[in-house]
What we know:
globular; 17 helices; alpha+beta
Amino acid sequence: MEYFEKIERILLKEMNLALGCTEPIAIALSSAKAVSYFGKNNIKVVNVYCSGSVLKNAHSVKVPNAKERCGIKYASALGISGGKSEYNLEVLKNINDEDIVFADKLVEENKILVNYAENVDNLFVQTSIEYLDGKKVSVVISSMHDHISLIKINDEVIFEDKLGVSDKFDYSILSIQNIYEFVNKIDFNKYRLIDEKIQKSIEVNVKIAEEGIKNQWGLNVGKSIQKLCNNDDIFSNAKALAAAGSDARMSGCSLPVMINSGSGNQGITLSIPVIYYSKRKNIDNDKLKRALLFSNLISIHQKQHIGKLSAFCGVVCSAASAACGIGYIHGLNYNQIEMIIINTLVSCGGMFCDGATPSCALKISTALDCAFTSLELASNNMVFKSNEGIVGINAETTIDNIGILASKEMKNVDDCILKTISK
């Protein structure tokens, strides 16, 4: 149990509150931090440099609290006009009408320039502001959406963090076996911060899912799914709620979510089905918290092999994790949990990410549908065999195989998608 503290550190780092899609929010955060040094007046030009994956994800998604405004320029402009870097990934939570007017002016006067940053970390944002009096400030975010790695004032480095996140946290400690033991043995009274994170995730993620069902957001994917299922269909209703949360989030809803591995959609996908299932089955709160802890950690484990951003749609991993959480509640054994992961990853693992868009909601539904079928198969000890396609000798090697495909071989897919959406 000596590794418990290491897992706790990872979990507390990877689970955070965020308002809006995390790529434009990372842009807003770097811009808000940069402008905090010399203010928002007398700006000559703002250059925003983004890696290809950030450009792709921030290209067309709506910015929260921005009254339908979307994209990279507005994310930066709003970070400058009214963002508060001390709020971290909720940097835009207090944006008001005056801030929007100021941001509009920055964009209309073409003072925000967007640039493609090559040969950088897959998650990379740099905001460089030049003022009319010659002052300059530059802030870099890399590795994680809220990890400020470099600050320059007038070309002088005043802060630098050369260590990447993986250098500070021992992710190698994560394995399905260690996670399984951790979840079974954790004392929530001892690990109060974990308990608070899990409880908060229930509160905020349910709230945005209910908002997505109640009101008009995006294409109303969640509401549409709900219309197709009856009240007794627990899994279809769980899909509807998860998709509805994404409907709202991708369309500029001002409610925060508890993200996982840098993604709000993944946080919603891995939590809402587990929460809804537990409610319908009258599962006690302790069991629910352990199931959510399991789901979150399994998702983090998978994503470490893939990376924060990829052409591989991350909700596939989160859907598998949600099914693992429900399987944990069911009392499935360790081998059956592995079966859920294998069945899900090798069947819908080809779904690609073409950026943060309203289509994310339907992708969540698709991935969960596959994951729930995989759960049923695993409950009956049915699993795809080793060496059938990319199936490894067990779940861990299957995760490795997916990681290689997603982080390395799909790089060309990401480049192709970026070229397509930039036309």
